[in-house]
Amino acid sequence: NLASGGSQIVNVLLNNVSVRTISVANDTLVVAVAEKSTLGSGNLEIISDTGGTVTAVDAWTYIEQSKITGVSPQNGTQGTRITITGTNLLGGGSSVGDVQLSGISIAQSPAG
Fold first, then answer.
1. Which of 59, 70, 106, 107 satisfies CB 3.0 to 4.6 Å to 85 for a cystine?
2. pLDDT (tens digit per residue) in 5-34
3. Are 82 and 76 a contacting pair, CB within 8 Å?
């Protein structure tokens, strides 16, 4: 019971930092957007309107924010091969889920 006996979830803390928004919150699912914070690990806490708290110890780690440092070429037509460089582009994951240019998903090809 993620609402910890309450009727709604009013806050989620990631390493003691309140999330930016909570878009879904019920007894079994919470979807939230993390706020900017310093790097580090800590607890994930879900707080209900009654003050009840559900805590997962050491369940969240703020990682370095991704940064795009280059796009080449900077323009082109359909079929143009584009190289994107940067740091932490996987955002803590193990693969790229989607790449978009001007809001349009593009096909991905292996590096090389």
1. 70
2. 889 999 999 999 999 999 999 989 999 999
3. yes
The first and second tokens of residue 91, run together, are: 């955002």
User: What integer pLDDT is reported at residue 5 of this predicted model?
Assistant: 86
89: number of CA atoms within 13 Å, CB side? Answer: 14
DSSP character string of 16-51: TEE-SEEEEESSS-EEEEPPP--SEEEEEEEEETTS
Phi/psi for 22 (5° steps) reads: -120, 115
Among 38, 42, 35, which residue's Cα sits nearest to residue 11? Answer: 35
0.90 exceeded by the pTM?
A: no
Closest CA to 36 of 56, 12, 62, 16: 62
Q: In whole angstroms, give the CA distance from residue 26 to residue 1.
A: 8
In this structure, is the dihedral angle defined by the CA atoms of residues 53, 40, 87 and 109, taken in order, positive or negative? negative
